[in-house]
Structures are given as structure tokens and as C-alpha cells.
Design goal:
alpha+beta, Alpha-Beta Plaits, 6-stranded mixed sheet, 3 helices, 6 strands, 47% helix, 25% strand
Length: 178
Amino acid sequence: MTRLTRQAAALGALGIAIILAIAWSAGVLSSRRAEAVLTSQQADACERVAEQIQALRQQPAIVGSQAKDMSELVTSIEQSASKAKIPAESLVRVWPQPTRRLAASDFVEMPTQVDLRNVTLRQIIEFLYELSQSESTLTAQRLRLSASPHSQTDSQWAAETTLVYLVYEPPAAKPAAP
């Protein structure tokens, strides 16, 4: 093989290598573009979902149209306590708290304080679960646990919980000033 033939073969091989490198680069570029388009679409979808979540956070999940009758609420609490095997004497107190308007919205929080004594953690959890199943508009907003002062065992607790439900109650329209 002559020197010229070797150079031509080397140039040919180099040309083929360059063409293959260009073809590979074009394939990678095309693949990356497709991935970028897909990622952009997914990012847009995520932004839409995030906006929906934000909008839903601004609205109460479940709202009543009117305030619950206190005797109905107490009955629901007593039934949930019974299902959780909480003795009647352990349900110490149920009393309504002052209502609170949620910022400048049309919704009012109706809190009720419930005190339990000499109950196990399991009973407390079952009580709150049963209550959430029977009263879909009622949620436990706060739960405070402490060692029960008159407990016979270490596994009994005192629990204070604030149960809240929301009511749609637009503020009364103020009369226009003359």
C-alpha cells in the first residue's frame, strides 16, 4: 500500500468517524429536545396542580350550612365515645367555645371543647376516628394529652381536644352611610 493510499484510507476513516459522530450528536440532541419538551409539559402540569391545591386550601374542605344543635353534637360525641369503649364517667365535659370568623371570609368556626379522663391512647384515637366517621364536618383542631391525675395505670391519660366545624355564614351587610 502506498503512502497516498494509506492517507486516503485514513482520511476516509476519519470522514466516516466524523459522520458517525455528527449522527450520534444529532441523535442525542434530538433525544434531549424530546426530554426537554416532556419536562416542560410536566412542569406546566405540576404548576396547574399546585395552583389547584393552593385554591383548595383557601376553601374549607367540608362546610355546614347552619350551626349544629348542641344536643345533636353532644349525642354524636357520646356515641363516638361509646364506640371507642370510653366509659361515660371518662367523658368529663363538652362545652361550646366562642365562634370565630375565618379572616375576612364567609365562614365561621364553631369550636367545642371535649375533656376526657382516664382513657388510653387507643381509646382517644378510636374516639377521634369514630367522630370523624359519624360527623364528616367535624375535625379535631387541637389535642392536648397529659398524665391522668387519678390514673390507676401508666397507660391512662387525660385528653383535652377542640373539635371544630365550619359554617357558611356571610357577614351581615352593613347599611350604607347617608
